[in-house]
Structures are given as C-alpha cells and as structure tokens.
C-alpha cells in the first residue's frame, strides 16, 4: 500500500506547504530573515515536487498529480509546459542537443558566433556556478519564455492551455500574499528568485557533452540538504533510467548497483555539492557553444 500511495511524497508535500505558509505569515512577523529562508526552501522543494508529479507520482492519475502542485509557488513556469519540455528532455539520445533537448545549456556554435560581445560575456559568466546562481534564473526564464511566446503567436493550443491554466495557479499565490501573508512583497520576490537560483545548482552540470549518450548524465553522491531539496535527483542517471521510481527509493536503487551506473555514465561522478562549489564557483566547467555539435546546413 505504501508503494501504491507513496505516502512519503504526500507527507513531504504537506510539509512543504506548511513551511511556505508559516514563512509567509507567522515567521515573517517573528524574524523576516528566517521567514525568507523558509520560503526559499519551500519554493525550491515545491518545484522538485512538480518534477516528481509530472513523472507519475504519487498517484496513477495525471489530473490529481497535477492538482497537488497546482499553486505556482515559483511563479514563472506553467506546470504543463514544465511537463512537456521535461519529458522531451528525457529522450536520452538527444541530451545536450541545443535544438532537440529543451533543457540544454549549450548553444549551437553557429548561433554563438553571431552573438554580441556583451551577450557572450554574460553567458560565459552564467557557465560558472556563481553566475548560474545570480544570473541563471533571469537567463533561464527569458530562454524559456521566448519560444513559448512564439508558440502562442502561432496559435499553439497546448501552449495556450498551459498558460491559461497558469493564470489561476499564480493568482491563488498572489491572493495569499496580498490578503493573508505578513511577508512584504519585495521579500517574497527575492525568495522566488533565490529559490530558482538554488534549482540552478542541480541543473548546473547534471548533463555534459559526450559522444556517447550514456556518458552525458551525472551522479552526485550527496546526501545533504540539497539532495533532499532536489529529491535525490542528484543521482541523475538513476532517475533517467528509472523515472517511474519515486524519489525516496533512488538512493537504495543506486547503492545496490553503484558500479553498474558508474560504468554506464562513463564515471561522470562527483562526491558532493561542496566539491562542485569548490571547483566551479568561479570557474566554468563547460563552454557555452556545444563542443561536439556538428555543423548544420
């Protein structure tokens, strides 16, 4: 029964909403900095729970999974658009492709060559972990919105539906912030941006350019607070191979077959997020133009 209903996910989701509600109300009166930390953590965790729901957890019903995370705590991305683009990202043979992988951080070298010098500098900074934390949410939001605006202009019905459903999802959050919350709006906006920045830590190097598709997905053997906020998605190759496995079972699955997973991903491994901070906070791990991308046309 616990496997079918996935009670750890439901308990964590309830705790996430409770932490967010306390952060925006009571804690904001007691001590605003602590309240902001609570809201940042809850917002980032809610985004990770969105990811869990779109992969078919905790229920078999897609409707109820989506309904559980209906309030758009992170504001910027409609659930349906996240679902569509992320499931497209799970085509492992296309991972890191600047065109076919919606979550790729690489650009076509031909596109890179046409960019202005200031834009190149900004994107190079964004390829350091510090840059990804501070500029990544802004750059990622713009990169996400521009294709959707073009799709809306073309009359894409599914994209229109996703954004129309997103309006009440954002409205309920804004209603709470205006009518029930004690946290100032300016502080909440900072919290949302900071939460998106934390999520950029996870995506910073979870995929790399590699000639073999199996060597593109990372394992980060972290068991700290970031691993919990990311719902063990740091064991990323395990998730890509077993997307139907709930988040709380991923560590056990990995430990049972560690050598197999590391052989499969060609040893793309880090021991912890602290190692990644030490190595890449001020230094880029990858170039912006895809180093293995073939010329087109």
UniProtKB/TrEMBL annotation:
| Domain spans labelled Fatty acid desaturase | 26-268
* Signal peptide region: none
Q: Name one Pfam family in it.
A: FA_desaturase
Q: Where are the transmembrane segments?
A: 12-42, 63-82, 129-147, 159-178, 184-201
Q: Name one GO molecular function term.
A: sphingolipid delta-4 desaturase activity
A Gene Ontology BP annotation from the UniProt entry? ceramide biosynthetic process
| Keywords annotated in UniProt | Membrane, Transmembrane, Transmembrane helix
> GO CC: one term?
membrane
* Name of protein: Fatty acid desaturase
- Per the UniProt record, the source organism is Allosediminivita pacifica
